[in-house]
Amino acid sequence: MKKLKLPFLSPKAFSNSAKSIIEHLKPSVHKIGAPPGTLTYTGKNKLATQIRLFQFNKDEVLLDKITSTKELEDKISDKHISWIDVVGFDNIKLYDELGSYLGIDQLTLEDMLNISQLPKIEEHEDYLFITLKVVDLIKEENMFSFTHYNLIVKENMLITFSEKANPIFHNIEERLQNHSSPIRDSSIDYLSYRIVDTIVDHYYSALDWFTDILSELETELIDNPSKKHINSILTFKKQWMVLRKTIIPFKEAVRRLLKTETEFIKRAGENFIVDLLDHLQSIEETMVILRETLNNLMDLYNSTVSNKMNEVMKMLTLVSTIFIPLTFIAGIYGMNFQHMPELGMENGYFYVLGVMGVIGLFMFVYMKLNKWL
Q: What's the pTM?
């Protein structure tokens, strides 16, 4: 396994990372006191709102960049399946206009702009609303980035709303250009499923990195535990909590959707939704393993530090044990009595050193034979 550089070991890096993760854990306070349906973007990605219109059928694909609701209304054709891709939450007025034109409920628009909204699936009278998170790994900083993503699935139209553009959907756009792709010959529900499935599959990459780096951290804790590793463990626990908040509610939403037997299930294909649920179940089980690993890492740190301290105390005790009789002999001959028999011996000094050496060697050999050393 490739050796990974463990992140967040300095107090400053740990503090910055913790603040970033906490942003995804705490609920939004922007909407306190505001009436229901108030459109307020609660995030910090102030990207200009951009709209792309994909129109396709079995024979062709059309791509247009849209700047207004009026332009969108003029270009949408009933002969094609439409995918309206909206990126950036900066233009609240445009969102309000899109909601009115596309028949999107005001409360749904509110949830779209609220990045603290938990993943969920809502069935409305003429559309299905799906909101979830895209998880990206920032390799340079060894941490996760979360993007709020929403889908409105109508009878012949898909509208997606995202905080920022994400390269994980490039593969879907490329397949859309391929006339032999199943997307071109299927309903809009299949395209919606492919987008959601791509997001869910991307969770595996995040968990794969998480598993590798925790394994690396475990190795370091065994070899050379340090207080700096506590920062890493605490940061990873926060990252795990954000991942859980991101993934687990969506699994439950898909499970409930599968039980309702909606038109979306019939058109997208029940087998595809079951497969999606299987992936989420597998991801949840991996999350459970990661949680247990994180809990064990702190115990491992404490036990390893304790073992090392015990080794130090053992060595000090053994050294002290060897030198206790030698110190006793030296103490006796350090007394200043005038009539000590051995003081008159010409080679007494060397005799005493010899006896002390023999005693020390005997005790060392005895401890070695008993495997105390």
A: 0.76
